[in-house]
């Protein structure tokens, strides 16, 4: 075999490893959505969005959302995964489901880079947020909220559905047509579920407190 053949093999291997390298065995094996909701160890996280603004995941409370990991320089699975998300949003313009994409290459994926990437996919900023932050903290989010291995430029290609209570309801390889069908069915089911009354009241109270100045502050301003 000539040297050109081996060069092509090396390039192909690098592309796969660099974009979606081997991760823990449980991440590689296809798995159906869990029948019982899984409550993550990590309840919330703080990162920076594509506009350079602080993002606290508590704003997702009471709303179904889909989380995933990616990086903007990934030419293969990240691209196809985010194309699938973009198409889903176009096909479901009335859906309130939020999408949260977290980079695993924060050194290069600055808010400016994320903004350009989001524009390419015509991401609806009201429904799709791209996040960056400290890599060690992103590892923790992957491990303690998603139960996935996340390293620099290394991540699972699964997207994960969280329900209104913040529990994990399923994970899917949405670049796979069969998994995409299951994903769409579960999303519809989770979105149709009502938020628990107690949590709805807590969320409303949090909004009211954020919008209404405290008595002490009001008196101090007099």
What does this structure look like?
- There is one protein chain.
- With 222 residues, this protein is α/β, with parallel strands linked by helices.
- The chain has one domain (38-193): Glutaredoxin (3-Layer(aba) Sandwich), CATH 3.40.30.
- It is 42% helix and 15% strand.
- It is built from 8 helices and 7 strands.
- The chain has helices at 3-19, 25-28, 77-91, 111-120, 135-144, 177-192, 197-211, 215-221, and strands spanning 46-49, 54-56, 65-70, 98-103, 128-132, 159-162, 168-172.
- Strands 2-1-5-4-3-6-7 form a 7-stranded mixed beta sheet, with helices on both faces.
CATH fold description: Glutaredoxin
In total, how many beta strands? 7
> Mean of residue pLDDT?
80
Kindly report the name of the CATH homologous superfamily.
Glutaredoxin
Helix content estimate: 40-55%
Please indicate the percent range of residues in DSSP E strands (runs of 2 or more): 5-15%
The radius of gyration computed from the alpha-carbon positions, rounded to a whole number of angstroms, is 19 Å
Q: Which runs of at least 5 residues are low in confidence (pLDDT < 50)?
A: 3-18, 20-30, 206-222
Number of domains: 1
Overall, the morphology is: globular
SSE topology string: HHEEEHEHEHEEHHH
Identify the strand order in the major beta sheet: 2-1-5-4-3-6-7
Terminal CA distance reads 85 Å
How many helix segments? 8
Structural class: alpha/beta
Which architecture does the CATH hierarchy give at level 2?
3-Layer(aba) Sandwich
- At the first level of CATH, what is the class? Alpha Beta
How does the major sheet shape up? 7 strands, mixed
């Amino acid at each position: 075999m000539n040297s050109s053949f081996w060069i092509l093999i090396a390039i192909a291997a690098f592309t796969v490893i660099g974009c979606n390298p081997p991760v823990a065995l449980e991440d590689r094996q296809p798995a159906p959505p869990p029948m019982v909701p899984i409550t993550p160890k990590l309840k919330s996280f703080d990162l920076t969005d594509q506009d350079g603004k602080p993002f606290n995941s508590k704003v997702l409370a009471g709303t179904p959302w889909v989380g995933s990991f990616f990086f903007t320089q990934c030419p293969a699975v990240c691209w196809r995964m985010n194309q699938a998300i973009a198409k889903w949003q176009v096909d479901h313009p009335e859906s309130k489901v939020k999408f949260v994409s977290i980079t695993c290459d924060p050194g290069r994926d600055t808010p400016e880079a994320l903004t350009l990437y989001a524009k390419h996919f015509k991401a609806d900023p009201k429904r799709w947020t791209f996040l960056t932050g400290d890599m060690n903290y992103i590892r923790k989010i992957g491990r303690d909220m998603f139960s996935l291995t996340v390293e620099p430029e290394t991540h699972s290609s699964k997207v994960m559905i969280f329900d209104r209570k913040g529990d994990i309801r399923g994970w899917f390889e949405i670049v796979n047509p069969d998994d995409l069908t299951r994903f769409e069915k579960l999303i519809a089911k989770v979105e149709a579920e009502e938020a628990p009354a107690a949590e709805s009241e807590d969320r409303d109270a949090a909004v009211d407190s954020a919008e209404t100045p405290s008595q002490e502050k009001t008196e101090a301003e007099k």
